[in-house]
Specification:
binds manganese (II) ion; binds uridine-5'-diphosphate; 9 helices; alpha/beta; single chain; 18% strand; 11 strands; seven-stranded mixed sheet; GNT1/Glycosyltrans_8
């Protein structure tokens, strides 16, 4: 039943929360019938929680989980990604039978509720290593057992990249070969970088993209939006202003700007549940 299914994201600070605002707005625009469930950590400020609560049905405060694996993260040159282990809390949302996890740096362009027809663990290939799935968009089925097993694996084996993606790929090691039904089409996790990797394919299929994923250290909210002329000034060195990525970054800003128009509902209308990690 749709009421028992949800889109889920995670934000551990007010920075990534900007992503969850635009993502929440973009999901609402698709008239989804599913719930929007947001995991936050203590660091997210109260004014920001109020803004998030306008768009997300449920905010759950979770403890920060950190892989602490600095060596491996250094390989990725993304030391901040250890906190992505906090994603594992999503498996504790057992009030839902099925969820779609979306990174806070994704943007939904049209209704993707058909993703709930998929089973755990469904995801799209990673562009860096396509035999691994990218953990920015995935279908999963909450279960305390799975949560416990993932945490156990995190302690015993760790993650080969120091972040959640390395761990999840170790937990579902046969994703690439088990059954094609677990492979989400790339249009559900389209990275603008693909425009450079395979330009003709991007020209041919790019317009079919349903979910855009802004991977990498520079996120849409790091660029500057110029109101009035509806333009974005890109952070130097990140993308060219004539690239396809520019159009997607602008779409992100348009969604974000629409979150600033609504009047805020009082905080006490939302429940904040503190979950303790075993
Ligand atoms: N995240 C977060 N705080 C951080 C880093 C990451 O909340 O400091 C969450 C957020 O949902 C983010 C996801 O973890 O989208 C994965 O990180 P990111 O998207 O930066 O990784 P990338 O997609 O660039 O590999
Ligand atoms: Mn991401």
């Amino acid at each position: 039943m749709p009421g028992q299914e949800a889109y889920v994201t995670l934000v551990t600070n007010d920075n990534y929360a900007l992503g969850a605002l635009a993502l929440g707005r973009s999901l609402r625009d698709t008239l989804t019938t599913r719930r929007l469930s947001l995991l936050i950590t203590d660091e997210v400020s109260y004014p920001m929680r109020e803004r998030l609560g306008v768009l997300w049905d449920e905010l759950t405060v979770v403890d920060l989980l950190d892989s602490g694996d600095e060596d491996r993260l250094a390989l990725l040159t993304r030391p901040e990604l250890g906190v992505t282990f906090s994603k594992l809390h999503a498996w504790k949302l057992t009030q839902y039978s099925k969820c779609v996890f979306l990174d806070a740096d994704t943007l939904v362009l049209e209704n993707v509720d058909e993703l709930f027809d998929r089973e755990e663990l469904s995801a799209a290939p990673d562009i860096g290593w396509p035999d691994c799935f990218n953990s920015g968009v995935f279908v999963f089925e909450p279960s305390v057992d799975t949560y416990t097993n993932l945490l156990e694996m995190a302690k015993q084996t760790g993650s080969f990249d120091g972040g959640d993606q390395g761990l999840l790929n170790l937990y579902w090691p046969d994703w690439a070969t088990k059954d094609i039904k677990f492979h989400l089409p790339f249009i559900y996790n389209m990275v603008p970088n693909a425009a450079y990797g395979y330009a003709p394919a991007f020209l041919r299929f790019g317009r079919n993209a349903k979910i855009i994923h802004f991977i990498g250290a520079v996120k849409p909210w790091h660029h500057q939006y110029v109101p009035g002329v509806d333009a974005v000034v890109l952070t130097p060195g990140s993308y060219s202003s004539t690239s396809a990525a520019y159009d997607f970054i602008k779409l992100w800003w348009q969604a974000y700007n629409r979150t600033c128009e609504v009047s805020f509902i009082p905080l006490h209308n939302k429940t904040f549940e503190k979950q303790i990690v075993a």
